[in-house]
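step 3/5: co-fold with nicotinamide-adenine-dinucleotide
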Amino acid sequence: MPAKILDGKAVAKRIKDQLAAEFAALKAQGKLAKLVSLAVGSDDGTNSYRKSQLKQAEALGVAYAMEDLRADAPESAVVEKINMLNADKSVTGIILQMPVPKHLNGESLAKRIAPAKNIEGIDPVNLGSIVMKQYRNVPCTPRAAVELVIESGIDLNGANAVVIGRSTIVGKPAALLLLDKNCTVTICHSKSKNLPAICRNADILVTAIGTEAGMVKGDWVKPGAVVVDVGIIDIGGGKIRGDVDAESVSAVAGFLSPVPGGVGPVTVQMLYRNLLDALKA
Ligand code: NAD
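step 4/5: write tokens
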């Protein structure tokens, strides 16, 4: 029997409905969420990302504001703007749109956002709070990946979870989140030896690689395993694929998240879940 599809769009829709109800309830108490998107210069990628953020904000009844600085803005001007937004009590969450122009350092600028307002959660305080099990703004993609694992209904207690990828944005936080769900976690990366053999031991396999479409094959997978594919590889012609070879893996796995339509749609919802938590805090 082919693997059951972990339908990210359906999960996202359910989460969106829950979020909309919660935002509406808070609004009725006079608590209005405001998300600010800060861009330094802008390109097509930023514009289309903002369009989808705005659409989602409107659907949830969240105020969405765009702040734009010129592409040649010096670091001091960006820092000044971030400080202003940090101090503004009407602002619940801030997103610094990436990439920033080459003369700036996006990672160090993102650290200037107050951790409570950094709803993407990629900063030392928010990442560190996962280690301390005091979640606040949890990075959205790994949180979405774990959401899909939970969707499978698998018992996570003592399950063997393998995460391929050790990035700060996806792999490491995904591993910590699974550890907190009582999984026994192995993290693999580009220097790992015997990768297929390690993966074959996984009840849960999360792939966050992004180098080669379809790299993870069916013979890497334990029969019945839950496979969540985070990878996004542009294969041209406006199409994307994941790390997983869907055809061969689907014949072995119990559950598989597709690309597109798996982790991606859920990731967007996680951003707004963080915003909701920031509003409640
Ligand atoms: P990254 O490049 O920072 O990390 C990739 C990781 O893969 C590294 O830790 C590296 O060690 C590992 N790796 C590379 N080649 C490998 C190999 N041959 N064998 C084993 N491990 C190998 O990337 P990232 O930011 O963590 O993103 C990972 C993937 O997830 C990318 O495809 C990215 O586009 C995608 N992504 C998806 C979403 C989403 O919403 N679905 C969000 C963010 C990132």
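step 5/5: annotate
Residues 8-28 form the longest helix (21 residues).
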